[in-house]
Amino acid sequence: MTEPNARDESVEDLLRAAMAARADTVTAHRLRPPAPPHADRSAHSRWKSIGLPLSAVLLAAAVVGGVSLVGAPTTNRSTPLQSRVPTPPPTAFVTPSPGMTSALPTHDAPTDVLEANGTPESSTAESEDTRPDTRPTTRPPSSKPASTAPGSSTKPRSDDVSAVRFRTQPSWRVVRADARHECVLADPAYTGDCLGHGAWVSVRPVPDASGGWPAEATVDKDDGGPTRPSCMRDGVPVTPSPHGGPTMRLTAKSTVTVAGHPAKYRSWTVTCAEVGSYDIRLWWLVDQGVYIHTVGLPAGSDIADRVVASLDLSGYKPPTS
Amino acid sequence: MALLSMPAFGGDERSPDSASDDATAGAAPRRPRLRILRGGREEPPARPTLTELYHARRLGMVRLSILLVDDLGTAEDVVQDAFTALYRRFGEDLDDVDNAMAYLRTSVVNLSRSVLRRRRTARAYVPPHEPAAASPEDAVVLSEEHLRVLGAVQRLAPRQREVLVLRYWSDMTEAQIAETLGLSRGAVKSTASRAIDALEKLMKDEQS
């Protein structure tokens, strides 16, 4: 290792370059909000989250108890127990914890919006469950709630991807990548990469001068997909063989309506000679700076269609550059 | 993609020897110290804090971990756990940044190895999943040749992979790798040599 011979030199150089390229794909803004371990903050957070409400409850109980003892010495014992049991507060006052994905439905009848489904294929809406989606997104195991993390905000931003909501309550799981990207996983139990298993929901500035994908200049081309064509088998990228390299072809192009806004719909098919083919699909709401895309979802997966069908932009505004 | 055009923040684990300098240049503000409590004497040099180290080194550690576990979310979890362990061990004030960095680096490698072990166990029960190096953002910048190399690295034995990552990405010496992994220098040298041979063979096999 310390005296690499000529044979190893090219491998070593290649290894260095590949590792550097892979590491450079991780940039600071792709990371979750920083949350350094800190005893004071956690104690303060615990006091705020547990101590204060507990004190308020105890104080209220003491006041109520005192009033009842002083002001109502003749309790009607015939009152049914049921009527004296305090009722829980209405769920409308329940505030989702920071760090949780809030996807409150804005309509009582979620299926009402399914007519806005802009997908060229029929989509299946899950209307059996209309509860708000308050399941937590992934979070570092020892991190504090986002509100305690430096640089994070307790108030949801309207130009953040979390402001893009869903009107139906499906059985999916939303995993936030950063302020502008999140993945909707069809299988809530799945904890791996979004590629081949979920739909990306992303937001971007309007107009976007960064030249990122998707772009008007390339979205109508055969090689206009988000990736350099690579091969995938069962949702997992595999190395293409030298003779059966992947080819990408634009297979669908239309304008549809998504969440009440015009959207460009594109689909590409990537074919690898010895591996098979997979589809890349894109819904791009140009004037809203919102796009949903999938890469290599299994045939029959309708997660993207369901996401598109239930998209709710009523609380969202595009970020500015 | 635009995602990848953003400037990186913080230090990079590729230059471990500069940890002390970077840690003191972290983003978190210094805490005021009351001179009167020290009898009016001159303050001793401020010690770097774990919070500063976190801001300065988190990105580099996530990059180190992702080369081992190949999944960003998992790498972030690993690094968060490593910093938490560091905090439990050293507290907020770090007397010896080099020592803390060594502890942190070892924690990241060990926790990444634990992840791989759990992943192998899980594969006995669920359909296999190889979280490879290709989210759309990643694939757009990784050449096919790099993907091929990284794919081969992922097929190496965990210990071989760790040695290669520490040697060829972190640019650590044999002695540093030995300390980090708890191996002898001889074991590091032989592991690296075998790993390069295995890597070369895997890549040749793929081409043929």
Please outline what is shown here.
Chain A: The chain crosses the membrane at residues 50-72. Chain A has 321 residues and is of the alpha+beta class.
Layout: helices, strands, pairs:
The complex is a heterodimer of chains A (321) and B (208).
Chain A: H1 6-24, H2 39-71, H3 81-84, E1 165-166, E2 173-178, E3 181-185, E4 198-203, E5 231-233, E6 236-238, E7 247-258, E8 261-272, E9 276-285, E10 290-295, H4 303-309, E11 311-312
Chain B: H1 19-24, H2 50-69, H3 72-90, H4 97-122, H5 136-139, H6 144-154, H7 158-168, H8 174-181, H9 185-207
Notes on the structure:
The complex is a heterodimer of chains A (321) and B (208). Helices cover 20% and strands 21% of the residues of chain A. With 321 residues, chain A is α+β, with helices and mostly antiparallel strands. Chain A has a seven-stranded antiparallel beta sheet, covered by helices on one side. In chain A, strands 1-11 form a two-stranded antiparallel ribbon. Residues 40-48 and 71-154 of chain A have low confidence and may be disordered. Helix content of chain B is 62%, strand content 0%. Chain B has nine helices and no strands. Chain B starts with 18 loop residues before the first helix and ends with a helix. Classes of the chains: A alpha+beta (321), B mainly alpha (208). The interface between A and B is large, with 66 and 79 residues.
